[in-house]
Amino acid sequence: MSDRSTPFHWMATGIGSVPFLDVRETCGNICHLFPQIPFWPQFVRRSFQEDMNIQFSEGLPFLQIDREKRSLIVNQSSDREKQLVAFYDRFLADDLDFFALSREFAPGLHTLLELVEDGESKKGFIKGQCTGPITFASGILGPEGKPLIHSTELMEACTQGLAIKSLWQVKKLAGTGRRPILFLDEPALSGFGSAFSSLEREEVIRIIRMVIDYLKEHAEILIGIHCCGNTDWGMLLETGTDIINFDAFSFLDYFLLYPEEITAFIHRGGIIAWGVVPTLEFTGNETVTELLSILQKGFETLTSWGLSAEDIANCSILTPSCGMGTMTPETAGAALSLLSDLSAKCADAPFLPSLT
């Protein structure tokens, strides 16, 4: 768990997907708007190879891209066991370069790294992301027509593959001189308990912990979990994550139903990433004052539980509620600017700016 040696105090960052097409211009704008925690963008409209599953599939066994359907499928090769053996040989040998994210699949990562490395400041953080193992495996159908989460052998391989690909990414992020943050994006856990009724709570925790524990054993890193819908937040707080990222704009009241779990999380060094700038619901009429009122409600609730105002501010990050890939370039640009303005406003106050 994080020691929070550096107070976050409402620093801001992004989730990942954007609707823009110009890679270098977008990365430059991100560095300008979010100098303390720049993030690498996923250009989902530029190429289907930046789909959140396809983007992280390079080097993983038994998977191939169906270019017509723009999705991942399990290949029907008869040498699947041979593929798995070859995969585990490379995994156990820590062959990080084999599991790299190539520029073809992740131009935003490579361009952001170049800009940050060329920049003057080596202080602060830098954020990356990877599709979480539950979301990744739930979006790929196996030979029997069921998601890979129901195949123990294939699920384990996917999870370990995502772990070592994340480690390669983390090493690259750390090479900038900044401290790396990596979010595991788990939108598939929205509404856990209904759509995933066949997946036990303990199994979700175990699978996610496989990635978190692997990364913690091999790197100095802060790990977050992002879920843009409502879920069992107590479950995610048990995974050993350093950061929990939730949609504070739409689901604040649901998140606050876990006072004991959230209080314990913060006491042991956990960080709350408030997804307070809406994405799907964004109208362009939102204001810093309106978003501050949402933060104030959450802030006052947490202090009523006995948490200090200073601790809450120091363990708080601001983000959009979700990725911005479905927005227009104009609305996404406005939302990112609003987020940057909100963070700057909060940074000037001891805890939170007054609404009066």
Q: Which descriptor suits the 3D outline? A: globular
Radius of gyration: 20 Å
Low-confidence stretches: none
| CA(first)-CA(last) distance | 36 Å
How would you classify the helix and strand content by structural class? alpha/beta
Question: What is the second-level CATH architecture?
Answer: Alpha-Beta Barrel
- CATH class reads Alpha Beta
Beta-strand segment tally: 11
N to C succession of SSEs: EEHEEEHHEHHEHEHEHHEHHEH
What is the total number of structural domains?
A: 1
| Overall pLDDT metric | 93
Strand fraction band?
5-15%
According to CATH, the fold-level topology is TIM Barrel
Instruction: Please describe the biggest sheet, giving its number of strands, its sense, and whether it closes into a barrel.
Output: 7 strands, parallel
The total count of helices amounts to 12
Helicity, as a percent range: 40-55%
The strand order across the widest sheet is 1-11-10-9-8-7-6
